[in-house]
Amino acid sequence: MKKTLINICVIATTVAAIVGCKRDTDYVQSIPSPFISNFDLKKSFKETDLTLTGDLLKGANSIKGVVVSDYASGNSPSGLLIVQNSRMVGNGIDSVRGVAVNIGADAAKYALGDSVHIKIEGAVMKRVDGILQITGVPTSAVNRVASGKVIKVPVVNASQLLASPKAYESTLITLSNTVVEPEPGPSETFAGDKIVNDGFGKVTLHTEANAVFANEKLPPSANFTGVVYFKQQSGVAVPQLWIRRLDDSFELPLIKPSAVIITGYLPDPPGTDASSTAQYEYIQLMATKDIDFGQTPYSVVTTNNAGANTPAGFPTNGWATGGLRTYKINLSSGTVRKGQFFYVGGTTKRIWGANSTLMTNANWIAAINYVSLAGAGFGDGTANLLANSGNVAGIAVFEGTNVTVSSVPLDVMMYGGSTAVSGSVYSPGPPEVGYRITNTDYYTTINPSTRQTQNFYGGGSNVNRLGFQITQANPTGGSFVRLGGVYDATSGRWRTGRALSNFTMALTTQVADLETGAGVTTLEN
Fold first, then answer.
1. Among the CATH numbers 2.40.50, 1.10.3470, 3.90.1720, 2.60.120, which is that of 158-251?
2. Residue 202 CB partners (closer than 8 Å, separation 6+)
3. I want to staple 178 with a disulfide (CB 3.0 to 4.6 A). Which of 123, 198, 203, 354 is the partner?
4. Is the pTM of this model over 0.70?
């Protein structure tokens, strides 16, 4: 062993000596790229006029990218050629950025999808009427090298756009699952400024009065694809979304309101989960109308996709898979008023595990010994009604009590997992296999990028899920998960999307603490 250590030291010393004596001529020389990415270019701008010198461009003199502006329908700012490109910025993130280049009337000569190289050295980057643009570029500096290129269109929600508007300026994006507010009348058109809400914020949709589609009927709900431009309002540059043509608006089907929505859950109370007397997990729901469950029953299904749970593999029967993968609880008795919270879970009805507050004053529609008893129709008895670690888990609400492989939930929420889709939860097939979703604040049955149908969690853009709850040290366990949002009972839309907040629990926590205060779900209409 001693001899081996000596040899290692000798080798290390020799390598160090070689490296220390390395000659300048031994270094590999490289030539800087003549192109700078929009991402790097826009980082240099500090809201004052900026001359694009060779030093500032780090040896580059040009940009290259794909044209995303389209003058055919007349809804683009005059004279601006919008060019988009991307580069990897770390952690596998593909950062798509657009930039406006002012070349005057010749901007209209370039078509959507044209690949261009533009020499920008010596030009000036500045804001003109609120829009950041590269000025002083002659038309001869633009070289079209190809046509019909594929364009990357990020799907962005309103909160992302409003939090970092400059990152998306002059970039082609899609706002999905939006509603127009207020709801447009039968004769309302695209012309002017309209407010659209995707449940995560409100954005202005702008259409010029002379646009070809300005007088077309405005849909009440749609995915809108357009370029983000800034407009000066009271001295402040405010982002707007300009669709380029009528096809950039994709009308969505009307959403069916859900009589029951998911508002919170307790997946990891303190103590053991294995005892038949310790069914402390529960789900909090809200009624969006008065319900007599004896007359109109519903059901709740949970899914736990831990690696050891059976049946193994992809859930070929979806929410009705059963075994240790899915567990169904029927809601077939009791009543609840519109806007009232109610609970589904274990028979112990404790708020925070053993010796904690009894929840007998809460409205329990179903209390089941889920450890000892099988689910209503499918599901083996389980110590983990709600998963608290590992792969993606979920909760779904169904109309009626007959849940099959083809049943579509009224509301659904997936949570957990180290990646967006972890565990054997989805296979594209054929045949396609997984847990069906519906149109909610988190999921959509129409892919906003491809406009194709997507009916399963994990398919297309349906990869959103909540994180696991925060684990508390004293008492041991996780917090209650609140899913605060604002739900419109009339339209079935989330005016404000649900967001996870962890409510710190104690043995003395009361039911009123779970149903009041910041972060609770509220109802409109």
1. 2.40.50
2. 158, 181, 195, 196
3. 198
4. yes
Tell me the per-residue pLDDT of 399-447, one tens digit each, with 9 for 90 and over.
999 999 999 999 999 999 878 888 899 999 999 999 999 999 999 999 9
Question: How many Å apart are CA 96 and CA 86, to the nearest integer?
Answer: 4
d(CA 328, CA 347): 15
Assigned CATH for 38-146: 2.40.50
Give the whole-angstrom CA distance, residue 524 versus residue 35.
Answer: 52
Interval 199-216: pLDDT, tens: 899 999 999 999 999 999
High-pLDDT (> 90) share of the chain, %: 81
Tokens 């396609």 belong to 432
Report the distance separating Cα 65 and Cα 416, nearest Å. 38
Phi, psi of 407 (to 5 degrees): -70, 135
Residue 4: Cβ within 10 Å count: 8
> Cα 263 from chain centroid?
18
Q: Is the pLDDT of residue 19 over 70?
A: no
CATH 2.40.50 location in the chain: 38-146, 158-251
pLDDT at 25 over 50: no
pLDDT of residue 89: 63
- Cα torsion 382, 388, 392, 396 to 10°: value is 60
Q: Which of 368, 399, 375 has the alpha carbon at shortest distance from 260?
A: 399
CA distance 74 to 444: 31
Cβ-contact 132, 42 below 8 angstroms: yes
By DSSP bridging, strand 471-472 and strand 326-331 are: unpaired
User: Taking all residues of the chain, what is their mean pLDDT, rounded to a whole number?
Assistant: 90
Confidence of residue 271 (pLDDT cuts 50, 70, 90): confident
Instruction: Round to whole Å and give the CA distance between 449 and 68.
Output: 15
Angstrom CA distances, 100 to 79, 214, 405, 411, 518, stand at 9, 23, 49, 42, 42
Report how far residue 154's alpha carbon sits from residue 281's, in angstroms, rounded to the nearest whole number: 38
